[in-house]
Amino acid sequence: MAPKYQGVDFYNTDSLLNEEERAVRDTVRAWVDDNLMPVIGEAYIAGKFPKQLIPGMAELGLFGANLPEEYGCAGLNNVAYGLIMQELERGDSGVRSFASVQGALVMYPIYAFGSDPQKKTWLPQMASGKVIGCFGLTEPDYGSNPAGMITVAKETKDGWVLNGAKMWITNGSTAQVAIVWAKTAKDADSIRGFVVPTDTKGFSAKDQKGKLSLRASDTSELVLQDVHVPKDAILPKSGGLKSPLMCLTAARYGIAWGAVGAAMACYDEAASYAKTRVMFGKPIGGFQLQQLRLAEMLTEITKAQLLCLQLGRLKDAGTSTPQQVSLAKRNNVSMATDIAREARRLLGANGILVEYQAMRHLANLESVYTYEGTHDIHTLILGQEITGLSAFN
Amino acid sequence: MTAILAVCEQRDGTLRKISYEVVTGARRIGEVVDAVVCAAAPVAGADQLGKFGADKVVTLTNAAFAKYAPEGNAQAIAERVKAGGYAAVVFAASATGKDLAARVGAKLGVGLVADCTEVAAEDGTILATRPVYAGKALLKVKVATKPAVLSLRPNVFTPVERPKAGAAETVAVTVAVGRVVVREIKAAEAGALDVAEAQIVISGGRGLKEPANFQVIEELARAFGGQAAVGASRAVVDAGWRAHADQVGQTGKTVSPTLYIAVGISGAIQHLAGMRTSKVIVAINKDKDAPIFKVADYGVVGDLFEVVPRLTEEIKKLHG
Amino acid sequence: MKIAVCIKRVPDSETRVKIAPDGKRIDEAGVKFVLNPYDEFAVEEALQRKEKAGAGEVVVICLGPAAAQETIRTALAMGADRGVLLQSDAIPADGFVTAQALAAELKPGGWDLILFGKMAIDDYNQQVGPMVAELLGVPCVTAVAHLELDGAKGVAEREIEGGVEVVEFPLPAVITADKGLNEPRYPALKGIMAAKKKPLEVKPVQLGAGAIEIVALTPPPERKEGKIVGEGPGAVPELVRLLREEAKVL
Description:
The structure holds three protein chains of three kinds.
Chain A: H1 19-46, H2 54-60, H3 78-91, H4 93-113, H5 116-127, E1 133-136, E2 152-155, E3 159-170, E4 177-183, E5 191-197, E6 203-207, E7 219-230, H6 242-276, E8 278-279, E9 282-283, H7 288-317, H8 322-346, H9 358-370, H10 375-387
Parallel strand pairs in A: 1-4
Antiparallel strand pairs in A: 2-3, 3-7, 4-5, 6-7, 8-9
Helix pairs in contact in A: 1-3, 3-4, 3-6, 4-5, 4-6, 6-7, 6-8, 6-9, 7-8, 8-9, 8-10
Chain B: E1 3-8, E2 10-11, E3 14-15, H1 18-27, E4 32-39, E5 56-61, H2 70-84, E6 88-92, H3 95-108, E7 112-116, E8 118-122, E9 125-132, E10 137-143, E11 148-152, E12 167-172, E13 181-187, E14 200-204, H4 214-223, E15 228-232, H5 234-238, E16 259-263, H6 269-275, E17 280-285, H7 292-295, E18 298-301, H8 304-319
Parallel strand pairs in B: 1-4, 1-6, 4-5, 5-12, 6-11, 7-11, 14-15, 14-16, 16-17, 17-18
Antiparallel strand pairs in B: 2-3, 8-9, 9-10
Helix pairs in contact in B: 2-3, 4-8
Chain C: E1 2-7, E2 9-11, E3 33-35, H1 37-53, E4 57-64, H2 68-78, E5 82-87, H3 95-106, E6 113-117, H4 128-136, E7 140-150, E8 153-160, E9 163-170, E10 173-177, H5 189-195, E11 200-204, E12 212-218, E13 227-231, H6 236-246
Parallel strand pairs in C: 1-4, 1-6, 4-5, 5-11, 6-10, 7-10
Antiparallel strand pairs in C: 2-3, 7-8, 8-9
Helix pairs in contact in C: 2-5, 3-4
């Protein structure tokens, strides 16, 4: 049995957190230890999201944790929200994805762009885990370029009719409600968001099979065939690509923290292993090549932790920009994939077993590298920010 | 002449063996040791206390004392301590002893030095050592008052025969009617020896793979002819394979047997906290890097399903 | 139901114990402090009893340094209503002194139930609960793993050697909680935020030194390095020989 996980904090970043932030982090860490760690290996191999954990996550208040208390949410600040994502992803990126989608990609748009009746109807139910949501933006042919989407919403006498398809949708097959982004006219400025109950006639969701990454997460295709929704299904304050991008920025913020959690888990496991695994008469941690691996890991984690913390403080002050979030997501996910890979190598043959975390994190992080804005897209976002010149096309 | 009161325990009218340890411990800090036991009637086996060093054996009787009577026993013992001018009163840190010692301490207005592994008297002062922080450190304390109130960790003060008069006395006592009443004792599996009191403890962990496999441990325990108890790691207790009463470790019981055999237990810190003061530790595990081997005196690396039955065979041969 | 829970701030169970330079206490540098695990069962029991009764108050009382406010807030985050910190930098080695301080605070309270954890995982003293009961003149049952309350009386079960002791007692009473009494809830994130707003009274107290003086805190004796006797069942005869002839335990 491995010693209890104590996190990684080389620069005492704990001292930069307030008491509530630490308490939130400690609670989620303990919950993950007790509830997620014992089941995740099996869930990953089976390719099943451990949905029996949903009530526990809801009770703890993990969904939409940074949204206001009046909607049944915890009303936490963004640093605390980030710490939740960090600790969830220390467990598994797929499970953290579930929470990211629920909170940042469904509850957030309803909160930011929805009407009061929409907020009152959906938010408390989603905070309590009774209703699961999914976010329909990406399409089979439009991933990095959402502006090109072909899902359309045509206005009718008493509402809208939606037609199109979405792909790579987390929670798609288990959600009761989908936030579907569709063009109401020809161009990207006409994109609006729609709250679509998934039991609406014409809406179907099917899990995508054969995933080698994020296996403990439901990833689905959505098909909308003449899906009629009432007038009030539209998110009234949504308008243009900006709206879904704001949601993505919210999710990316959490992912920047989450990746650090995965990296911390891999480093902790590797360091522990290096101290006890004996080869050639001494622990492998005593060999220079392994020390180099571990030193690099610790360095990158420490940098990333400080990056997240400052980003969180800026977000709480209301001054953070999407480009700042891009920098953090890009850096942290990239360094986490490197750490997971190096940790896997340090573990030797044992590192290919699900009983050790590294390879599962390694596989998962490949998805995290690609989704929510690929690494390369974030590179271009920063490039444009720096130079003022777009290199997107 | 320092006199110590050694509080002994009885159950169902028979003296509990742990009482000999209490007298042995008391002897280390006083020239005179009076043993006392609360019961409804004279207690079988109390006459043996003289053999282990009791100058006097006093049975305090009251109808309410047939079972443990927390308030009545505490009152009777505290009055006895005050009347007798004892330098210290010593209890066993058994389930009952821990409860009773605290109550008596409060009645005497003195803190309890609990779960001692060493006691000594120096220039009229009682010194005691006790494990703290789950056994990660030892605390040595000095008690300034008379009387001192101490409880002794089970299985540490090995009874030594040092015969004294053991003059028996029965004293009927009156106590206030107890509000806290032991209604019954629900016995565990008949004859099951408690892990905290057994001389030999064999514990099983997750390496056993399934609850039914605890059979191999129970076989080994039986081979020791009634001296061995079967313990469990926290993992298998939490998984529901074994009762919490069998759990050895920080959130279970702390044991100090002569021989502790850890089977299929990796050796998490919390488990070690519960058994590290065992006299001899043997570990059987298929993983040679398991932390348990660092605390074990003797280790066998191998498949427990092969090693343990072999050990059972050899022990049976020994006991003929 | 008006319920008091006495709690303690202790080093986390994973702490590596380092002895401070004065040789009498642990070095607290880098030590993580938590709510004593046995006290979690006590807090949980109090919350469940209050919820069952439909109305009431759960008050947590802690003797400790200023930093123990954080520990109290953990209990408030779980759902307790208010907290009292009896502030003292030093906690005496003499459990009776602690009991006196807590009893003085509890005396005017009119409590239906007073709960403690059965012991603290730092000092393992196992006495403060029953001593407080004695000082208050209130019935007490210790190390309770199962509790049933019915109006003005209760039945508790506690583990003893070879069985379970079933104990009847009247209320109000002091109960000390053992593992198994219940499953402590996690402080919900909402609870963590709400804890800040709940009343927490800080009362500095002056404690006597008590009768028990610390002489030294030392690491445990190093166990002599052991040996791997061999591999597989073939090593067993040698193991048995060593246990007989060398260790002399068989």
